[in-house]
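Supplementary Methods S3. Complex input for the 1,6-di-O-phosphono-beta-D-fructofuranose-bound model.
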Amino acid sequence: MKITPLQQARYQYSPKLPGMLRGGIAEICVKDGAPTQSVADQEKIAALFPNTYGKNEITFQKGKNTSATKKQVVGVILSGGQAPGGHNVICGLYDALKATDQDNVLYGFKGGPSGLIEDDYVIFDDEYINAYRNTGGFDIIGSGRTKLETEEQFKIVEGVCKKHGITAIVIIGGDDSNTNAAVLAEYFAAHNSGVQVIGCPKTIDGDLKNEDIECSFGFDTATKTYAEIVGNIERDANSAKKYWHFVKVMGRSASHVALETALQTQPNICLIGEEVAEKKMSLAEITDYIADSVANRAAKGWNFGVAIIPEGIVEFVPEFSVLIAEINELLAGAKADAFNALATWKEKYAFIEAGLTPASMAVFAQLPEGIQQQLFLERDPHGNVQVSLIESEKLFSEMVKKNLADRKAKGEYKGKFSPLHHFLGYEGRCAFPSNFDADYCYSLGYNAFMLIQYGYTGYLSKVSNLSSPAEEWVAGGMPITKMMNMERRHGADKPVIRKALVELDGKPFTYFAERRATWAVETCYVYPGAIQYFGPTEVCDLTTRTLALEQGK
Ligand code: FBP
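Predicted complex, serialized as structure tokens:
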């Protein structure tokens, strides 16, 4: 692999630890906090986690290290979608483990949770680790989306741990993976396996956060990368003055990425899925809202603009969700064969018209033909519509185009509308981590080892006070069960970490909502530029606007 000058320079970067973790392993001790309770459904969660429920929150502080001397053999996995900084979690974990005892061993299981089941691993050494310091990506060991959740899998993992003498597993993942980490920790505790489990909060989507976890890692770098690109697009739009750009950004279940990108760039439009659901907005209402901005700007002579669309938007539109459910039903089982046997789209359309309720048919009829066909052609192995593949940026731009044509016919609009489309997702997931993510991730990993060393299990590595300088960050651990509630998943009640959606009464959304009417008509673009790794701290150590607003900064 060719090493670029930037990568070479990033190898030399020393990630900043919270003050309490600085100064050497010998000087880190535990401050016990209060016992915890789950955020809801306490009795049910306590009953499901008899061995790991209700434990104390802890923080680390400076003082004599009192942890037991024991050889540690730790296994680590990366789980789910890539997020910048994952390599540094492993580097921090490795450094703390080796600083404690050179004989300690770190296994990296390859390809996500499946690596643990298939016993596919590498053993890290300095040379291996040094090639990945402060770099983006998950290619150090790869990742995967296999879920580690059944008793049968747990038994296999127990066997793998026994074989290698593994004393602890670190799971770096999102809300689902950390939910499973808690279940695995309980399984090991119940079976006296002597294996601890620690989680680390990862996802660019930003939806693993709560009163304990201020943000998941990767969100900072990914949103800065998207904001750089959106800012560049805005500047191009404002220079050429001839295109409307529809930019879809990742984030399937929550709109934090879209909101943060908008806070950094002040586009004309940014849809927030949670608001669409709360207000039960229809496709027509959303279209009208965007078309108003296009028309109002056109009246000022500005036939250009930028609209940000969150990836998961259509799933938040109530009438669209009903339509999807009806289509899934319409094509269930053998009915799909009858549909597929029809030769022309016209015949298929008639089949659809006969099968949908009038209300859903009215929604379907509004959609551009390309999207209509996509709903029927691209389905998952269970025959269900693949909502994530719907090109919502094109859906809305085409609906806006039709809406504007109607306005033009009535003499209400005289502008030109030339839309362009972009999808920003994979571009941000493996970027070189910002200084914030490099520091945060390294701290999460380092801290995860301290939790292992002090014997904790079923805990999430927690680093907080993140909008302050790293010196003032607070490191510790929180029982994962504290973040859990019962939710209905696949027809059964399950204990899960609650997914964090955009709060409509939260400060980031409120800030946006108070300004967006102006942004929709005026040109208030902000151009954040590329992430800076070297230079003044006010340029290089910026946190996200979301974090700053949430913490009153
Ligand atoms: P995680 O929740 O696993 O962190 O992944 C989030 C995400 O980046 C979403 O924003 C996106 O919808 C999805 O992954 C894409 O997944 P894939 O890499 O499987 O295409």
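Residues 221-311+391-429+501-553 form a domain with the Rossmann fold fold (CATH 3.40.50.460). The CA atoms of residues 205 and 444 lie 18 Å apart.
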